[in-house]
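Q: what sequence does this backbone want?
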């Protein structure tokens, strides 16, 4: 139930103004004819779209109390993307439905409805929608570099301010009903406050820690391990969690990126294993020790400690081994029985195999290396053969999104319940 609190909260917050709207005027008046129906649907789309837009600004910030409501930051971002798409669609249909009433007068009246500067409140709405459409096109159809993409999203605050000015000054149910006006303006204020928090105050309020880059260990041409040493005080985390790191000097830029922690949970230093997947990660192997690093977090609920069943199967695809290394390093002799599948293409890609073999000797972990070049890709049927009683175990998966989603589908096809399959999708962050 606690995993659904966040979703139920979103539904309630978004529906309250809509419910109020239904009681402002009699429904037989609002839906008397076709034009009235289209106008009413346009108003519904505008109110619901604006409420969801406000909520989405709140979800976009990495606020830990919000993460707890959704049981994981990856789920917060998942809903952020979905709600953003719904909000955009509603706000797009808002003027298209309203223009029907102008079409009933004349085509010219309908055309003038979309011409800027004829009506200032309407102009705010037009420019808000145009900028939003541009940002959506950039996000969906153009592959931007991460730092440019992230910078472009800051313009969503401008979109929201214009939408707020439109809602505040346009002659509508919002302007003539005190409850609706106060509720939506309050929700908008919270959204703007969170936007300011994310842009200017997050590092202060999230209590970001400053670390120094202690060492850079190149594990193979594609994988590097960074060791970070706290400048003053480290962070407490559960094995399997992740942090956002940003370099405060050097040539890689200061944008924050999420990475899983591979350290044990009983030390001050953080170890992070990173695979080269783009311009940013490719430059990390050239970093020099001593650079200051800002660490935000930890985040995430992906941990063996958050699962009651101590009979578990861990499945790592490539660099997805990182959180499992943290779990293995932190594992205590308290009843856990683990099968750990380490899936890579060739033995040379299994960069942490030596340490995992040592952990296998000392802890209750059964290491199962899986080299796809020799054995083909790991699938659910092979897991049933190698891990007896799989249906009575919880399965944790980490790796590329197609790997995780594909394996989950296979497991569910073999009657493993979804609630027993756990993973976090970093691509959404």
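A:
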């Amino acid at each position: 139930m606690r995993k659904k609190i966040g979703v139920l909260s979103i539904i309630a917050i978004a529906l309250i103004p809509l419910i109020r709207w239904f009681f402002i005027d009699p429904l037989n008046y609002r839906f008397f004819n076709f034009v009235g129906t289209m106008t009413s649907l346009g108003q519904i789309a505008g109110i619901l779209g604006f409420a969801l837009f406000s909520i989405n600004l709140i979800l976009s910030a990495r606020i830990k109390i919000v993460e707890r409501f959704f049981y994981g930051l990856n789920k917060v971002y998942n809903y952020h993307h979905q709600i953003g798409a719904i909000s955009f669609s509603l706000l797009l249909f808002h003027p298209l439905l309203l223009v029907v009433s102008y079409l009933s007068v004349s085509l010219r009246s309908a055309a003038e409805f979309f011409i800027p500067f004829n009506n200032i409140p309407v102009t705010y709405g037009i420019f808000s929608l145009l900028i939003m459409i541009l940002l959506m096109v950039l996000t969906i159809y153009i592959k931007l570099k991460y730092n440019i993409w992230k910078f472009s999203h800051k313009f969503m605050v401008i979109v929201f301010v214009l939408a707020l000015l439109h809602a505040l000054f346009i002659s509508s149910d919002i302007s003539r009903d005190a409850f609706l006006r106060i509720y939506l303006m309050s929700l908008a204020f919270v959204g703007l406050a969170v936007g300011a928090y994310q842009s200017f105050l997050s590092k202060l309020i999230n209590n970001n820690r400053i670390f120094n880059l202690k060492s850079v260990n190149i594990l193979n041409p594609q994988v590097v391990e960074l060791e970070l040493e706290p400048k003053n005080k480290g962070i407490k985390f559960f094995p399997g969690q992740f942090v956002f790191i940003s370099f405060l000097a050097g040539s890689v830029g200061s944008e924050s990126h999420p990475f899983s922690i591979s350290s044990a949970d009983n030390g001050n230093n953080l170890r992070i294993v990173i695979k080269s997947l783009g311009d940013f990660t490719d430059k990390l192997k050239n970093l020099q020790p001593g650079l200051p690093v800002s660490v935000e977090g930890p985040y995430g609920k992906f941990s063996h400690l958050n699962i009651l069943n101590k009979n578990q199967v861990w499945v790592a695809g490539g660099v997805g081994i990182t959180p499992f290394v943290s779990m293995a390093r932190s594992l205590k002799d308290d009843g856990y029985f683990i099968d750990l599948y380490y899936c890579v293409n060739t033995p040379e890609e299994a960069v942490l195999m030596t340490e995992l073999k040592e952990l296998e000797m000392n802890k209750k972990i059964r290491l199962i290396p899986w080299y796809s070049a020799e054995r083909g890709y790991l699938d659910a049927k092979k897991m049933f053969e190698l891990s007896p009683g799989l249906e009575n175990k919880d399965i944790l998966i980490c790796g590329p999104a197609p790997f995780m989603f594909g394996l989950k589908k296979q497991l569910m096809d073999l009657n493993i319940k979804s609630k027993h399959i756990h993973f976090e999708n970093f691509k959404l962050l």
